[in-house]
């Protein structure tokens, strides 16, 4: 019997894998992909509860999450391209122009 | 029984490919593992009786966003590996340890919280349409019309912003 707890644990594990990617990797493209993994973890949770409660609102919110993820990817990748044109790097440790 | 087998198989693939995404050295391989991960998440959505979301997942994520990532990976010509320079002030190991601690905490909350809260049973929403796609569309165009319009505005702004950012000179 698969309960919502199982889906919650799967979602938590996927979320933490994304967080580890953000914390440990230094390639900013990999970090953006980790953020996509985190958003997917959120969606799994929403849809699991939509199924459990037999209500489509969870799926409506998942549609909004996907829309925001698409917007985030477009703007983020635009920033990466603009930065790469100036500094020739995608290493976030070298992206310290605005750090005091 | 069949449901359990399907769930554990999909969960193993999802988590395995997610780990590969963040551990692979080659960024192109990482993007391709991300596609596989999204496809298995779409399969999980089908299992959860959400075929519309599964189709959106395949079209938008595996089709659109990942192609965008591939374009950027190809455009950004990496002459030297991004991992070559290391900031001495960076403590990746501490981040790893903290992340695992948060995972254990979440797992403990999920495991210990089972049964302590009675499952909320809302009355099934009476929608005038049947079928998953029809129901999602009905909700989007009635109760959630304003958030839907705001989301479309957000996408428009993001599109203009991405074009402006990626242009060579303003």
Structure write-up:
The complex is a heterodimer of chains A (100) and B (170). Chain A has helices at 4-24, 28-53, 57-87. By secondary structure, chain A is mainly α. In chain A, helix 1 (4-24) runs antiparallel to helix 2. Helices cover 78% and strands 0% of the residues of chain A. Chain A has three helices and no strands. The longest helix of chain A has 31 residues, at 57-87. In chain B, helix 1 (2-23) packs antiparallel against helix 2 (27-47) and helix 2 packs antiparallel against helix 3. Chain B has two domains: 1-78, Four Helix Bundle (Hemerythrin (Met), subunit A) (Up-down Bundle); 127-170. Chains A and B meet through helix 1, helix 2 and helix 3 of A and helix 1, helix 2, helix 3, helix 4 and helix 5 of B.
Structural shape of chain B: extended
User: Class by helix and strand content of chain A?
Assistant: mainly alpha
Helix content range of chain B: over 70%
CATH architecture of chain A: Orthogonal Bundle
Give the H and E element order of chain B: HHHHHH
- The computed structural class of chain B is mainly alpha
What would the average pLDDT of chain A be, to the nearest integer?
Answer: 88
Q: Classify the beta-strand content of chain A into a percent band.
A: under 5%
- The count of DSSP E runs of length 2 or more, i.e. the number of strands of chain A, is 0
Named CATH architecture of the largest domain in chain B: Up-down Bundle
- The chain-level mean pLDDT of chain B equals 85
CATH fourth-tier homologous superfamily of the largest domain in chain B = NADH-ubiquinone/plastoquinone oxidoreductase chain 6, subunit NuoJ
